[in-house]
Amino acid sequence: MIRNAIIIDPEDNIATVLRDIAAGGDVVAGCGDEVVTFPALQDIPFGHKVAVRAVAEGETILKYGAVIGAASTGIERGAHAHVHNVVSLRGRGDLNPEQEANQ
Questions:
Q1: Is the per-residue pLDDT at 97 higher than 70?
Q2: Structural domain tally of the chain?
Q3: pTM for the whole thing?
Q4: Which of 6, 1, 87 is nearest to 44 (CA)?
């Protein structure tokens, strides 16, 4: 089966989709030789993220081997991961006052 989502690091808990995937369609995501297939729970637009495993509320979101945010609510495997359920942890002065002062 042809991959339609990419995982860069084996620790990533989300994948980036390479084309639109309709709800109920298969997400075929991989990193190296490891490939996982699961149904999309919602429509996932091209370039957006999908959870490759269940992510608990408050858990960090890992994309390309880096922390990009935290789950603002639990995210099921196959769910669209976007601003409605992910909060950014990057470039937020409200989380680190020293960071804001140095920008």
A1: no
A2: 1
A3: 0.84
A4: 6
